[in-house]
């Protein structure tokens, strides 16, 4: 059974959509999933990217798009009261529940993603965070140094593997980025020969050409 490493940050609506749709998208294909929380802001900073909220027209499009995708795929979605928001309290709470390898289980990932993208409201409201914490089984202090180090290590490891955004699905050294990559991920898991064909080689050759200037 092939193992997928699902890199996610709870600030991403596309991570939520991918989480909810993945069981249907990969139905019938043998696989396991490990969920690895990372700090999206650190990925963007590393690569010099701007997130969608930093570009006003793209911000509006993103909120329209994710609601359409939810509608189209039967995933209930409600925008939070504010976005972007500081994801650190949620990331640290998740990692307080993590195994020693920095990964969380599907229950923890779903609880936190739905807290933001299904329930609406302010993700960081103190009363809501208290309810959320009480619903989870913590293994360590969310505000402690171990959790902070784990988030740093997860994010550094993701960057070292070439992860530049979320959601990203890693399997057998290959990365698939975004909600719309789920069909491609399924094809790879199912052994589609395309991945060993000329299109794949052409993509690698094109990507190796130095950029102008």
Task: Characterise the protein shown here.
This protein is α+β, with helices and mostly antiparallel strands. The protein contains 9 helices and 4 strands; from the N terminus they run βαβααααααββαα. The protein has helices spanning about 15-25, 40-45, 55-75, 90-95, 105-115, 125-135, 145-160, 180-190, 200-205; strands at about 1-10, 30-35, 170, 175. Strands 2-1-3-4 form a 4-stranded mixed β-sheet. A hairpin with a 2-residue loop joins β3 (about 170) and β4. α1 crosses α5 (about 105-115). The N and C termini lie far apart (about 45 Å). The model has no long low-confidence stretch (mean pLDDT about 95).
Kindly estimate the percentage of residues that lie in beta strands according to DSSP.
5-15%
Largest sheet report? 4 strands, mixed
Strands ordered across the widest β-sheet:
2-1-3-4
Oligomer: single chain
Instruction: Tell me the distance between the termini.
Output: 45 Å
Number of strands: 4
Mean pLDDT: 96
Radius of gyration: 18 Å
Uncertain runs are none
User: What gross morphology would you assign?
Assistant: globular
Number of helices: 9
- Residues in helices, as a percent range: 40-55%
Describe the structure concisely for a colleague.
The chain is an alpha+beta fold and 213 residues long.
What does the secondary structure layout of this molecule look like, with pairings?
Blueprint lengths: L1 E7 L4 H13 L5 E7 L2 H8 L8 H18 L14 H8 L10 H12 L8 H9 L10 H16 L7 E4 L2 E4 L4 H8 L8 H10 L6
Parallel strand pairs: 1-2
Antiparallel strand pairs: 1-3, 3-4
Helix pairs in contact: 1-3, 1-5, 4-7
């Amino acid at each position: 059974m092939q193992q997928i490493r699902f890199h996610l940050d709870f600030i991403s609506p596309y991570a939520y959509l991918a989480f909810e749709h993945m069981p249907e998208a990969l139905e019938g294909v043998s696989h396991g999933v490990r969920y690895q929380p990372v700090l999206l802001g650190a990925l963007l900073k590393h690569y010099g990217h701007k997130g969608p909220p930093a570009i006003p027209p793209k911000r509006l499009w993103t909120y329209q798009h994710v609601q359409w995708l939810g509608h189209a795929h039967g995933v209930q979605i409600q925008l939070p009261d504010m976005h972007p928001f500081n994801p650190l309290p949620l990331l640290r709470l998740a990692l307080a529940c993590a195994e020693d390898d920095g990964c969380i289980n599907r229950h923890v990932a779903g609880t936190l993603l739905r807290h933001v993208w299904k329930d609406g409201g302010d993700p960081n409201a103190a009363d809501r965070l208290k309810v959320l914490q009480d619903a989870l089984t913590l293994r360590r202090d969310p505000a402690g140094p171990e959790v902070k180090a784990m988030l740093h290590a997860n994010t550094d490891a993701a960057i070292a593997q070439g992860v530049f955004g979320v959601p990203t699905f890693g399997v057998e050294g290959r990365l698939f980025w975004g909600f719309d990559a789920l069909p491609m991920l399924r094809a790879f898991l199912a052994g589609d020969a395309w991945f060993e064909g000329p299109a794949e080689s052409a993509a690698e050759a094109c990507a190796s050409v130095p950029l102008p200037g």
